Amino acid sequence: MPLLQSIHKYDIRSFNWCLRIKQRGTAIRLSRVISFTADGPFYVLIGLCFLYFQQWDMAKLLTSAFIIERSAYQIFKNSFRRNRPPEAIPGYESEIKASDQFSFPSGHSSAAFLMAGILAYIFPSIAWALYLWACCVGLSRIMLGVHFPSDILAGALLGSGICSLLITLLF
Length: 171
Hints:
Radius of gyration: 17 Å
Number of helices: 8
Structural class: mainly alpha
Distance between the termini: 41 Å
């Protein structure tokens, strides 16, 4: 239990640090856009592109990965049942309304790191940009006030882990 308490204290400190940045309004607007890119429709579009170009192995990888990732995400989210910042911090209000109740792990981060890993495997020359985008997705969820830093880290590990496992098993 002391470990969880120290993680929560770190989360609160780093969360508050993020919220005190200069140019907060600009950061919030940018965070909304970045977060939107990880909402899901773009992932479907990428999958449809693989089908259109008859990249069956990549379409299979993407579909399998998201089925596994979304299942694991739901299991973890409903098992840990960690409160989001507005419920955990008295008087705090987030910039957006989260789509579900609990915060751990971050689904946006999990999906973004999963997608970044898959696309980096296919297009290694742009891996740096893909992982930069995934990191920005995670940071945007903190800036919007719906996740703590450890939620983002857990999501990134979940998405990256599933991606690595599937690429190892399928290729």
